[in-house]
Amino acid sequence: MQNPAAGATRVILVVAIDTPLRRVFDYRAPAAWAGEVQPGHRVWVPFGKRRVVGVVTECRDRSSVPEGKLRFAFERVEAEPTFDAGFLELLRWSADYYRHPVGEVIAAALPAALRQGAPIAVEETRWRLTVIGKEQGLEKVPARARQMRAAIEALTDVADRSAEDLVAAGISRESLRKLEDRGYVEHFTAETTPPASNEGLGTSRSPALNEAQQTAVDRIRGSLGSFVTWLLHGITGSGKTEVYLNAIATVLERGEQALVLVPEIALTPQSITRFRERFDVPFAIMHSGLSDGERLAAWRDARSGTARIVIGTRSAVFVPLARPGLIVVDEEHDSSFKQQEGFRYSARDLAIVRGQRHGIPVVLGSATPSLESLERAQRQAGSLLSLPHRAADAKPPTLTLVDLRKHGESQGISTPTLLAMRRHLDAGRQVLLFLNRRGYAPVLFCPSCGWAARCQRCDANLTVHRRSALLCHHCGAEQDMITRCPTCSSDVKPVGQGTERIEETLEAIFPKVPLARIDRDSMRRKGELEATLAQVDRNEIRILVGTQMLTKGHHFPNVTLVVVLNADQGLFSTDFRASERLAQTIVQVAGRAGRAEQPGEVLIQTEYPDHPLLSLLLRGGYDAFAAGALTERQQAHWPPYSRLALLRAEASHRAEPLKFLQAALAAAHRHAVKGVQLLGPAPAPMERRAGRHRAQLLLHAPTHAPLQRLLSSWILELESLPEGRKVRWSIDVDPAEL
Ligand code: ADP
Ligand code: ZN
Ligand code: ZN
């Protein structure tokens, strides 16, 4: 039937399938629909003994697989391709860049329902009257057939109604079928357009922008329709969100869509309300808490263009858009934009790649930009937009170090801190204390013999929790609390502070002051965080104790004192990014203070008041810190002045990961690419975790190109190393943590 000379019909489908194998698979398309299939279509194919959904990435004339071994694809999932060519290309590029199996990358970009073969379009059964039904229905159906008469009445004066709708109105499917037999009604299938995920309210108006905001908005507006990566660097409360909102207003006027990526924790109703109150348009909201159905609906609205504003966490960077106009990455420095397992992509970096492919601007916003983004802004002259002042006349807070070596400290709280708390509480204000450690105490220790409670599966101490349990924060293992040392039977005691202990201490010191603790343990239930934040808003809570959860996105207008209880945890880490993270955390927490009229005060407790990083931060703020840190990075050849990839391996047997990495190292030397250095292998900073031993090999190169050149050939070889069969290994390009 086919004429190869004409070459009209390409019968070989190259299909990406959700498997860890780094390859695609060839299938023959049945002649009946071979001409109708194109890249981006989902197809049902046989895979081993299973029947799975794959995505066609290419259509070809011939395959290198021998004819006899080629299997036929079963069928197309639906007539419409799921992805257009451009989007498919973005996914393939991402798989290539992160060296991740393309089938898994494509699967990650699909809502679960579509991965399982559901159609994009939702169809439903609808009923309508036939011509006879319209003319004679009510005359012919006897009065006692009440259900049937009700059905005819329900369908009179309307074109048609859905089966579900009729059943909800009390009409049985049986009576509909009886009417159909008599020729009075008929049913048909139709695509539904489910209501958009969220309608905006559009009740709020933009305040008059200040000069810096107006400049930022004008420049973003001027760039619509072309690719620019803007860095919007504005201190907390400087009005960044107002800048996004005003830029988005123009995007909407142009008939385009805006994609707003936000950190995981910030996707609270509070922050979405701000957007919904401004625009009277359909929204698609995408986060990890959605059901499969909700996710598909939001995805569909984004893809069809129904949703004009799409707000989502990390994975929303893979949502297709019909008419993309602008991408915003809010709090671009946030670590949740980097996926830390499986397909290890950076949503921030991919947002930029997407912007470039669509030819639209990308706005990265932060009060504490990542050093990567600051370095890019330095290279791309004119791409930095600064908001140096707080918007609503609020003064920036003053930062003071409290030297823990000079001032007495009791249960983690120093005397100057206590005095300041009294002062602010007496003035009717609220106080926020930040400690990056949940639980009661990080160590359970025996003072007589030095024993400490360790996790049996990790190289880590167990954390004491107030509900009488010892928990491992790394693997989740749980043990009963003990009071006697298992080696010498002396009394053991909890050492150090967690948020629970700070809560206990403060309750004893300020028994009459209402307090709330905000961390992952206290805010487990859905809605609890919102309820507590509302209480803070109403001033029913005066002291807030919490972890990272407190540092992001929330507005606490009546908080005038912020205390960082222990700044030292990030000062002496082996990870070159630790100081950047610490500076960001301190500045973000500090930013919670005094957002309204009252100026704020920030106390930072430390045993190292002379630490150069803390001094830079105190004297010159985040900008001074960042300038210093960038100089250090440049001198040490760390990113953003070099590129990294990390090969990780783990196994339950201690020797295996290192053996595999040694073999990988030898293989890399065979592929030697100039400029790429290999460091290690070495055990991971926490070698044993959840019973598995971990090791890593670091690749370091001046730019990305030589790194990619090595990775592309090297990984294929890793897949065939015999040592690789005894370990689980993964590659992390641009790792966020070492
Ligand atoms: P950021 O996102 O930088 O933290 P926001 O956009 O949330 O800052 O603004 C902080 C506060 O200042 C908000 O309450 C906001 O409504 C207000 N605000 C922002 N811009 C202005 C402005 N031009 N005039 C008055 N108030 C403003
Ligand atoms: Zn002991
Ligand atoms: Zn553990």
TrEMBL record:
Residue span, Helicase ATP-binding domain: 221-387
Cellular component terms per the entry's GO annotation: primosome complex
Keyword match Zinc: yes
One MF annotation (Gene Ontology) recorded for this entry: ATP binding
EC class name: isomerase
Ligase among keywords: no
Biological process, per Gene Ontology: DNA recombination; DNA replication initiation; DNA replication, synthesis of primer; double-strand break repair
Domain of life: Bacteria
Cofactor binding note: Binds 2 zinc ions per subunit.
Positions with a binding annotation for Zn(2+) 2: 455, 458, 472, 475
Family: Belongs to the helicase family. PriA subfamily.
PANTHER family xrefs: PRIMOSOMAL PROTEIN N
Protein name: Replication restart protein PriA
Gene: priA
